[in-house]
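HUMAN:
Sorry, I am quite new to this. Are you able to go through these amino acid letters and fold codes? The numbers rather puzzle me.
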Amino acid sequence: MPAIQRSIIRFIILAAILCSPVWSAEPPWEPSYKIKPHEADRLTAADVVGPDGIVYPDWRHAGVTGGIPAVSVRARVEDYGAIADDDQDDSQAIQRGAEAVAAAGGGALILGAGTYHLNRPVILSCDGVVIRGQGVDATKLVFRYGGPGGGVGFLQPADGDVVGPDTPLEAHAKPDGLRRIAILADGQVLTERAYHAHWGGTFMIRTFGSALRKLPPGKQELIAVAEWEGGRRAESKITVQWDPAKSLPTSSRRMPSSGLAAIMFHGGDSGPSWKLAQDGKRGDLEIVLDAEPDLRPGDAIELEAPATERWNRLVQNACKWGTYRRGQFRVEGLEGHRVRLNQPLRIDFPVVDGSTATKIDPVRRCGVEDLTLEQTQKLWTCGILFSTAWECWAKGVKVVKAGRHPIYTRQAKWCEIRDCQFDDAWYHGGGGTAYVGWERSYDCLMENVTTWRMRHAPCVQWSSSGNVIRKSTFHGSDAQWHAGWTNENLFEQCVVDAAGSHGTYGHGGWASPPHDVAHGPEGPRNVVYDCDIRAPKTGIWMGGMNENWLILHNRLIAKAGPGIYARHASFDHIIRGNVIAVASSRPAVELADVDCIGVEIMDNKIYGAGGQVVAGPGQALVDERNTVAPFTPDPPRPQPAVPSIFEWQRDVKLEDRSGVR
């Protein structure tokens, strides 16, 4: 090699070393989650000492309080004009029937046997409504809306409608090749979207009548404009009556700025807000606000600590958008500026970051039961969406070929998805498609779900915490802690085969790294318990800033990567009682950076892995009672003494945090 080439190579290597992060064998912040049972002064109300001496998060709040109720029949959809098997649109009949049920005090709207058709979405903001069929093999909803004729048009309002500040203004366009969509009035752009890296299957844009506030009351022409690749352009016009004084009957429950489904339940996600006057600490049952709040016992609030420059620097978050530190709570009592909460804080909400409490108005106690929903058009919509929803559920539902996600929640609490099947999606690419799990959701429960041809399932993202996904089987997708500081979620007794061809990353479980500009890092104490995970690459891949994850009693079978991989300040984990089979020479546990410290690796049975239990620059704190044997592709699963930590917790009285029954 010529001398000049050697000099250039040496310069590149030196520059890379000088520009690399300075690794330290210290955690980036004071650790607070790995606690031993005898450390009574460190235990908080958010901790539960398990029967195995491990301190766990508390999942006893997960799911609909008291279980999914048996809701009485209130009406039948045929009473509102629907006729099964007549190939006519039944969406308006279901809409009218559901609203009538709510007005009568709530109950179930019954769909008979046969096939009903939805030519447009059903959008509900009322409490206590259950849409119930006769079973997945008897009642079928066919969602055949594919966007407006002519390429672009308004879903709402209709031509001639009166529009107030809370009225949604929503335009849709044909998605294939779409590059821009906008709504205009009087020559002004009210809102627009243009193509970007996470465009996905974008087809809609939504704003509200308040965007017209600079225009005089009276008739206004709204124009929806769409532009596609190749220069094609289309527009659609409606005339509305703009009335700044008009309020919707449920004005606090105006639709979110994005998201749509064949059936959508939504509450209101923004109300009056107050800043915290005192740090909210992990385990606190009370917060202190900077003013006496207009709240009552039973109200719903959302706490948020924004992703400030200080916090982003601390966790090395390169993502400049998204939701990281949030939680939702019920107000139990008030005394001046003090608000008592229904459950302890799982993470800190510091004053220094401008943490706030916001009153929200979730839709409550709604559900969909015992039917099949199939989407026949390629459109980026969910099957069923619960948005700002509390104690809502789907039970006995099969979703075939959803556009985006089959059943999904956003800004939800105590929701439940049970005994459901999800088969395929129209979209498997970027921008958030083919997920099964929870987004900005808290204390929700998924049980006995089976999926095929999904992308990321099971999945939690964007501040989701306290959620449980268990006793479910996911064919051809990967488990994901996908974005936004998810924490204290439990994947338990799940079967995950990540060898799919529909957008899986190839790792059995994947936790986004801090340098990921689209997702950001994942938070503390997520738990994988008694799962069976197979992967073409790594069994579980942790990208960094993960504190005290508990990986217990799983079978992890990895083909090309290590069994468990941790990097970049992924620390204080407990890896115990697993069966880890690694076909390559990679180790069972790889601690890829020197700041991967405090990791306890105990009582694991290792097969293959080049005979290595642990390797890498990081040093295990404990490496005890691990055995190594030749590789086998199908070793026996572990048999934990406590088969379900979730069910064990449910048997422990809430006031008893000692772990003794």
About this structure: The two ends are 72 Å apart (CA to CA). The first helix runs from residue 3 to 19. Residues 41 and 415 are 33 Å apart (CA to CA).
